[in-house]
Amino acid sequence: MRNIIELEQISEELKKHDLLQPPFIADGKLISDFAKRVECYLELIDFIRNKYPDNEIIKQVKIRTKSIIY
What we know:
Elements: H1 2-15, H2 30-51, H3 56-69
Helix pairs in contact: 2-3
């Protein structure tokens, strides 16, 4: 049950950001559009991690994205 609650927390925060909602239209600037979406996603991960410090799923997401980026 805890995992469901944690996923709902993440989902609700993701839904608040239009940039992360489909359809993904690049408006002719594919690279800069992708960079904006990635930046938004990474900032949102930090935000969710701070808002829900006990959320183990977002904690793991943050660890994994950190290892990919660096």
